[in-house]
Design goal:
eight-stranded antiparallel β-sheet; four-stranded antiparallel β-sheet; 49% strand; mainly beta; 231 residues
């Protein structure tokens, strides 16, 4: 029996026109869609199932990024501070701007720094990391892709179903139609422009139930409503 190999990809990418932004700006100017994917989660008896973690698996359409298969449970962010000052480094979720983690919040001396981020707790999707020091704010954009469902469901989900069995995911959160620039490691030369495919696998998980994996095609011009049933 052949073993199945999975991989996690953590890619630092650039969103067109949005590499560096002011602190309070929302960089989502490419597709600020209010359309949502609405879901209802029930058990085999039709009862509401609350607290179901929602994740998704995506692919890059027509892109060299989609061919990267490099295990990456952690990543390093490098940065330089020109003088002693207060420094913050935070991770945000793309589109919603929810704060995922505060990595640094301290006064640092001038110099070059490296910080390691554990990616195992990040679910799939786009993220922003924001470095702020003195009067400078730098934002860069990252993509997390984990194809191993058994580990993906242990990450913090995009959202959870509520007591009414419902969840809503804005299409913008899924990163559709956002051009991601893939550059070489040695230079800023653009190798390829990647897009997240509109065909995704939605992953629903809760302890005590068999994980649901369902393929969906998202038409961002229309809202979608779907019912998911745990057997």
């Amino acid at each position: 029996m052949k073993s199945k190999y999975y991989f996690a990809v953590f890619i630092i990418v650039t969103v067109i026109s949005s590499l560096c932004c002011k602190k309070d700006n929302n960089p989502v100017t490419i597709e600020n869609s209010q359309q949502v994917l609405s879901g209802k989660v029930i058990d085999s008896q039709g009862n509401a199932v609350e607290g179901v973690g929602i994740h998704y698996i995506y692919s890059f359409s027509s892109s060299k990024l989609g061919k990267i298969q490099k295990p990456c449970p952690s990543t390093q962010i490098s940065y330089s501070i020109p003088k002693r000052c207060f420094v913050t480094l935070k991770i945000f979720r793309w589109f919603t701007r929810d704060t995922i983690e505060t990595i640094i919040q301290d006064t640092l001396n001038s110099g070059n720094y490296n910080v390691s981020i554990n990616m195992n707790k990040y679910t799939n999707g786009l993220y922003i990391y924001r470095l702020t020091y003195d009067t400078t704010t730098i934002e860069k954009y990252m993509s997390m892709l984990n194809l191993d469902i058994s580990s993906l469901v242990n990450a913090n989900p995009l959202c959870k179903s509520n007591s009414n069995r419902q969840f809503n995911i804005p299409y913008g959160l899924l990163g559709f139609n956002v051009p991601l620039l893939h550059t070489s490691e040695s230079s800023p030369t653009i190798i390829d422009t990647a897009y997240i495919s509109h065909s995704i696998q939605l992953v629903l998980s809760k302890s005590g139930y068999k994980t649901i994996v369902q393929t969906l095609f998202i038409d961002t011009t229309k809202e979608m409503s779907q019912t998911f049933k745990f057997e």
